[in-house]
Amino acid sequence: MKNSIMLNLSEQSSTSIYQYIFDFFCKLGFPEQQSHIATAAGLLLTAALLLYVLDYIMRRVFYTALNKIALRTSTKWDDYLLSNKVHVRLSRTILVLLARQFLPIIFMGFPVLTAALVKFLDLVVLLTIYHLVNSLLKTCRDIFRTSNGFKDKPIDSYLQVVQIFLIFVIGTLAVSLLTGNSPWSFLVSLGAASAILMLVFKDTILGFVASIQVSANDSVRVGDWIEMPKYGVDGDVLQINLNNVKIQNWDKTIVTIPTYTLLSDSFKNYRGMQETGGRRIKRALNIKMSSVRYLSEEEITALKNIRILSPYIDQREREIAAYNKTWNTDNSSPVNGRRMTNIGLFRAYVLAYAKNNPNIHQELTLLVRQLAPTEYGIPLELYMFTKGTQWVYFEDTMADIFDHLLAAIKHFHLQIFELPAADDLRLLVSKEERAEYSL
């Protein structure tokens, strides 16, 4: 009863306003038809002006107050609300709802215009609600990104799924308003075209499933270093979206790959290395086989001057002496019994050097092993981990180690294998020519 009374009062007031403006134009000498048009234009201009004034007041008063409040608080969520313009979307939604409520009453004297205006305002209401909800979703995304539990999760993928669903709902309601049919009839017609929709949104569906599986299995996170040579990927994951994954390579190029390739193709994730805190060194020195031999007593005595190797030599001498004494070894031939070799002492030196290196991780695997001989010599491989995982630190540490070993190997009477260079060949030819000339 109360609502009907209020509606009747609104109708009467709008009719009196319309009649007053219409009479005003008639007194000015306008014909009746032109007076109706002028009255409609005047009402429309007045309504637009009122809405503009309300919007101006909201921007000047409401927005400024919210900005000051957000700056004074220590929380971040209100800053995200402002950065995503939630307050702007909310005020615009309120204005559109007010226009939807009062404009049809103002233009009650124009039934055709009122019907078109109502349909237009309904569409604008749907659009403003979509923008408001979308801003709220982006705010939730930003809040989750700063949370320790969600900052490395593919939040963008979930946001895009909700956005697609929201667009679908808004689109369905908009079609229903324009056609005047029930939304269910539109959904039924979409069911018949589901095969076409599956084909159109194939990548989106695959990406959505891949995002869920990647998140559930924790196989890739934002910030991980991954490597996929097939797609030229070797760098950090910047973003995991619904349809693609964005990676920044070490050369600062950006590579974008479909999300479902993280399931269909293999890739290498270096997260385990980064979490462990050590980066592996796995490189070998190829030693020339002809330079491997037993060491004499004088050479062993000279090597005792190496501080980190001296304890090992003393222990080794005692073990060898005890063994040879037990088995009555004939020392006339160095092959009899046990002897120290230059490659064995060099291997012990490399291990001792690594154990005394402050840049080598002592709690992870640390060994110096001899691999099977090849046509390039005997590979003496260093297998160890640096204390840091940064690329520059890793390369500097490894270079320092091999710089030292390449310079120290000559003191063990060993040689590094290398293929003949052009100078070697020219020297060989020159020696042959001199030998022929002397003959």
TrEMBL record:
PANTHER family: MINICONDUCTANCE MECHANOSENSITIVE CHANNEL YBDG. It is found in: Membrane. Pfam families: MS_channel_2nd. Residues 203-271 form the Mechanosensitive ion channel MscS domain. Keywords: Membrane, Transmembrane, Transmembrane helix. This is Miniconductance mechanosensitive channel. It comes from Sphingobacterium zeae. The lineage of its organism: Bacteria, Pseudomonadati, Bacteroidota, Sphingobacteriia, Sphingobacteriales. The chain crosses the membrane at residues 37-58, 94-114, 120-137, 158-178, 184-201.
